[in-house]
Amino acid sequence: MSLISLSDRGSRDPRESGVDEHSLRLLEFDRVTAAMAERASTSRGASALRAWRPIADRAARAAEVALLGEAMRRTAEPGEWCQAAPGDPGARLDAAAAEPLDGAALVEVLGWLEAGRATRDAWADAEVRARFPALAARVLALPALEELRVALRRSLEPGGRLADAASPALGRQRRELAAGERELEQKLERWARTFGADAYVTRLGERFVALVPAAGFPRRRGIVHDVSGSGQSLFVEPLEATAANNRLIELKAGVAAEEARILRELAGRLLDQREAFLELEAGLVHLDTLRARARWAAAVGATPLAPGVGAGAAARRRLALRAARHPLLALSERRESLVPLELTLELPGTLLLVSGPNMGGKTVLLKTVGLCVLMAHAALPVPAAEGSEVPEVERVLVDLGDEQSVDQGLSTFAGHLRALKAMAESASPATLLLCDELGAGTDPDEGAALGRALLEHFAARGAWGVVTTHLGSLKRAASEVAGIVNGSLDFDREHMRPLYRFLPGVPGASHALAIAAQLGLPAALIERAAALTPESTGTLERLVEELKLALRRAEQQGEELAQARAVAEAAAGEHRGAIEAARVALEELRRRLTSESEAVLARARELWQTVQREARRAEKRRTSADEMRARFAAIEGDAESLLRAAEPGHTGIPGLEGGDAPRPAAAPRVGERVRDRDLGVEGELVSGPDAEGRVLLRRGSWNIHSHVSRIEAAAAGSSAPGAAARRSAAAWETPEVPAGLEADLRGMESEEALTTLDQALDRAVLGGFSELRVVHGVGRGVLRAAVERHLRGHPQVASQRLGEAGEGGRGVTVARLR
Q: Which DSSP string do the residues of 189-206 spell out, in sequence order?
């Protein structure tokens, strides 16, 4: 089989396709391709589809099926993916040797060049090219011919007239001609007005003339070229306009010569690239046929199907049609009532024998199978569902209908015999045989015998085939000859109507007497015919009906089981959906908790970094603190000297000697509450002092490293009140509220809040902190504004900023201390 080349304008030998035109005509293949041709955008595309034939080359057919599949998927998406133009410029190129190309022909050529560029532009997206690689490669292979397109576009107007920009000389000559015509016409109008209001200027041939009244016109004033039909007016060329008219004729000749030169030049450039242009035209026509086939497939629900390709190694030895429909009926008014065909043939049973009553749909089944196989081999969309398979065959032979030929002296039976002879000679595993009413047209016994012999021959050769018959003796062949399988179309005997449902493995009864009775034949005749019918025939029909009934029950039970399974799968799906929803919810909860924990950890790290920075700053200040402590110690020493001088034993004042001396304070123990004098912070002594005097205090969640020389008992000592009073005169006491990193002002009035803020600032500065976090809340912003104004001029504050996302946002102001 071979595809008619899109670039071949001649006729092809139909025998090259492997399917003779007679068989294609019997199956109405041309009506199918004509239906697709109606969806083409160009006349060339429609002509190519009407001449479409099966493709013999396996690689070419597979490539075409792949292109068809991509075209169907691309057509289902929005946007045009190929363009074409009207006309057949290729045919004009073929005739260019005899007749030069004119402007109209070049405009057609330009249209195809523009369509080629638009098609390439439609595939500029790399993502689209990646999803449809075969189509993209076909488009990118189109010749560009960009220089020719630009030249034609610059030189031609849409109607085929050459544009003024086609050449500088043409533009100049046309402008000169137009100016001369305007000047001469104005001159003639002035001249004609002297002969009355009815006189006017017109053209006669290529010359400007004036139509003036004949009465009284002095003939010496001009040249009379013609007389009006009534004889009342003259077409006159004034003598003074003769030279101007002659000049215009010369200018017109120059313009025509320049136009002819430009057309020859453009035609020459096109002919120089003739092969490339024909390749572009053929490529665009091919894309148009792909789009037309895809549109038809979308309308009927067809699928691309490659012969010999399917699921499994035995795909080439299997014919399986799923929900197949006759392609002509798929778009008819009866399409809603069509019963899809479900049919499977595979080795060793490749020959299907279909029996049953007339009007049951056997011929439609036979044509459906034949057309589906031919359409698959022609890379046309097959009206069947996904999962269908067809074997690869080389020949398709059909015996269908009345083959009587009066002029050749052939009877109906002789015509059938000639077709059956060709089938017997060609039968092979690469042949599809389609035979309607085998054994008919002659004596039933002899016809049955001949039919049986042919069936045995076809089966022995391993041929694929669908054969219909009414002969009861042939129905037994399926159980007696290897390679033959029975099948029938279901029939409702109760209502005497065909159901068109294929029943594999079950022979069909003819129901001739029942149909005759329904059509009104006399009851006596029907009873007599029943009495004459052999008992074996009636028994066989009863067995067939019982088998069909059992098959219907089995199918009904299968449908019920399938429904139950669908319900169970739906419930399982809902269960899986609930599990998946719970899993997603759990993942979301885990993600949210992880995010929140990360935020908390980030805040903790930030606080720890702040503490470390403050510790380093405190270490830097330790030297100045030691100096201050030394000064305080000197002052305390002086104070103690004064106190000792003032004690009764040293004053010599009676009654003051013998007073109790102060006892030294005991060293603090682990677990006691102590106070760090430098920080003004109380806490529990956790460990120490070690060999170097370092101790560890704990206050809430804070661990404070200090020195034993800087801590004291938190409670009041055992010294006398007087001594305490005297000592307070020389020692500075820190406030009871410890220094901290945060001041919470929420719920306070402005005056109270600012006082609390000052105290917090004092503690933070004395504690050596670099920042203070002021919590004022959002509210109406009154407290925040007051805090901002207060901090702006505060001597202890270097700068301020609103809190960030992890610090409290607009409800917090962070003050950086000096």
A: HHHHGGG-TT-EEEEETT
Nearest-angstrom CA–CA distance, 121 and 129: 12
Closest CA to 69 of 140, 142, 131, 3: 131
By DSSP bridging, strand 694-699 and strand 484-492 are unpaired
CA distances from 790 to 27, 693, 787 (A): 99, 42, 5
Residue 627: Cβ-neighbour burial (10 angstroms; 0-12, 13-18, 19+): exposed
Q: Pick the residue with more confidence: 577 or 287?
A: 287
Nearest to 398 by CA among 418, 378, 377, 375: 418
Burial 791-811 (b: 16+ CB within 10 A, else e): beebeebeebeebeeebbeeb
DSSP single-letter state for residue 781: S
The C-alpha atoms of residue 134 and residue 548 are separated, in whole angstroms, by: 48
The closest of 93, 81, 4, 45 to 278, measured between CA atoms, is: 93
pTM: 0.62
Q: Rounded to an integer, what distance in angstroms lies between the CA atom of residue 718 and that of residue 434?
A: 125
Nearest to 789 by CA among 780, 779, 800: 800
CA–CA dist 150, 138 (Å, integer): 23
The tokens of 374 are what?
Answer: 């031919």
- Residues linked to residue 697 through DSSP beta bridges, in sequence order: 685, 704
Give the separation between CA 706 and CA 677, rounded to whole angstroms: 10
Give the SS3 label for residue 528: helix
- The C-alpha atoms of residue 425 and residue 526 are separated, in whole angstroms, by 43
- In sequence order, which ranges of 378-511 are alpha helices (DSSP H)? 412-426, 444-460, 472-475, 477-480
Q: State which of 182-186, 336-340, 401-405 shows the largest mean pLDDT.
A: 182-186
Per-residue pLDDT reduced to its tens digit, 578-628:
888 888 888 887 777 776 666 666 666 566 666 666 666 666 555 555 665
Q: Can you count the helices (H) and strands (E) in the chain? A: 24, 21
